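TEACHING EXERCISE
Course module: macromolecular assemblies
Task: Read the component lines below, then compare them to the predicted structure of the full complex.
Student: A.B.
Group: 4
Components provided:
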Amino acid sequence: MTIKDIARLAGCGVATVSRVLNGGRDVSEETRKRVLAVVAEQDFHPNNNARHLKQRQDTGVAVLVQGSQNLLFADLVERAQALLRERGRQAELYYLDEAADGAAFAAQLCRERKPAGILFLGGAAWDFQRSFAGVTVPCVLLTGSARGLGFAHLSSLTTDDEEAAFQAVSYLLDRGHREIGVLGGGQPLSQIGRQRLRGCRRALEARGLSLDEGRTEPCRYDMADGYAAARRLMERCPEVTAVFAMSDVLAIGAIRALGDLNLRVPEDVSVMGYDGVFLARYSVPRLTTVCQDTDLMARRGVELLLAQIREEGEPVHETAPFRLLEGASVARPREEKKGV
Amino acid sequence: MTIKDIARLAGCGVATVSRVLNGGRDVSEETRKRVLAVVAEQDFHPNNNARHLKQRQDTGVAVLVQGSQNLLFADLVERAQALLRERGRQAELYYLDEAADGAAFAAQLCRERKPAGILFLGGAAWDFQRSFAGVTVPCVLLTGSARGLGFAHLSSLTTDDEEAAFQAVSYLLDRGHREIGVLGGGQPLSQIGRQRLRGCRRALEARGLSLDEGRTEPCRYDMADGYAAARRLMERCPEVTAVFAMSDVLAIGAIRALGDLNLRVPEDVSVMGYDGVFLARYSVPRLTTVCQDTDLMARRGVELLLAQIREEGEPVHETAPFRLLEGASVARPREEKKGV
DNA sequence: CGCCGTTCTGGAATCGTTTCCAGCATCACT
DNA sequence: AGTGATGCTGGAAACGATTCCAGAACGGCG
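Instructor-supplied answer key:
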């Protein structure tokens, strides 16, 4: 069943059928009706491969996600895919290992499948300049690192990670914590991780304290790593009264680790998360966390991508809002061992 | 840069280049080397749209996931996609809302994109017979319902849901629980939900008890629904001493709900989960749950799909193993109010 | 009536592959 | 030397859409 058959059944030429199928300009109302009737009757769907071959581009959009266990992405991905579908664009999802070379994968995807655009979720600092040489496809980076933004077709929507980390640690300091451990940031430390660490340092230095490198535990963004890192941290630095985990997933792993060390949260040790995923609102105890607005991010990210696909102006770089969500995982330190 | 240019540069015909690119049968070693050199030098990638148009099929595989918050699928999806990639098949992921008509979506996907196969994760009872009329694409159903297995191109790998539920509830009964609530199964109740309920009923009847319909709370598979359902259940039936949640995600929501009602887990109420996702091992308290082997399921599921794509024999229907994973969310009932 | 502009139409070229098929060597064997 | 089998090769015909372009039909106007 091809466009030719439809043409025959509708008593017209293939060109006319094609025109009807693509917006129906320059076709009389009568023929249009007739063709559409046949299409519906035969349950005809045009072959995308043929269509894209001729148009030299896919209408679909690729969504690349790096780090599958990060629940922040689960929220974002579902939302983004639904929004894209509403706008008539199929969104294909690709999960990549945290260690994989996302930029190279994306470049290959462009050459082979030629998507109309790419939405990047997470990922370390990718070198678009290098891998995307010669590739011109609209891209949007969500929650990723800002490195390589020189790439001409890349928009971005990222949280001000330094400021968010600054506020998170300040929140802990406000409640009297002085011995603060830090978990996460990628292994090895990613661009984002470094930004967040900068925020931590700034918060500490604003109180005349300094970031103790011995109390930072870089690790990947999954629960197992969060668990392991928290254990290492507490065994090495038992004086720590609060932990700032750079992801809620890590925070969950850390809480479990603390429990296994017979430390209660938040009575003995406070835990601050990051992301504000749905799980944060259901964990025991509820997480106090830096909450990102996934709904807004998905919506705006999709908008930016579609705007670029329509070639409306230059790529833009925006900052996504965040707010501190108070749960029950942070309290004042048990005894202010080192009260200033 | 097309195959024609490569042919020109390598001093041969397009047919030869194509043969080299596809396994290189019937090509002299010398020409093969020469062509490959040019391909590498020019960083040439054949156009997939043209290729698939001619072959009338995509080499890629589609993975359909229904119910994005179900963490069981997160595990499975990542694993399956990685395995497929290893086997040289790009896997595109599509998330569907739990309420969406997955079979219709899949049918449309087949007509438009023509994937080599489809891997289904989850989903209620889909009517393959109806939606897939005329479509012949290899399919594998993982963890889904068994309805519609009459579809000729469908293999399946499913857990024996009835038996698993039987064992889960028996475990609770063994520990002295008599007033047992049940959460989940889809809203409205899915095929799988009904099977699990049958298992519950069988376990209860084996002890001379019966399944009290008033103590079952059908709900969707996400934390918010689990929370709400658990609250409804406990407010209506305060005598309940143990809850069987048909998914770990629901169990987490339920634990939070019980906490908000000032009921401790497991001291006041025990909670049994289902799935054995990574989160189960890190939650507080650790979940006692029916653990499915996601690694094995992904591996075997991919194998079944690839076998069908290679057209090796008839579709098969297999059962995936499970085992009870003991955590700390189940204890004996506080006081055996109705000790037999 | 002749001419032009507008609106609609369908044939044919095109996109970049795969694959059929015919053709040419080369070789072994009668 | 003639024959047939075998191995490589390249030209050309698909695949199923889009889109260019030329042409038909029609109406309005001088």
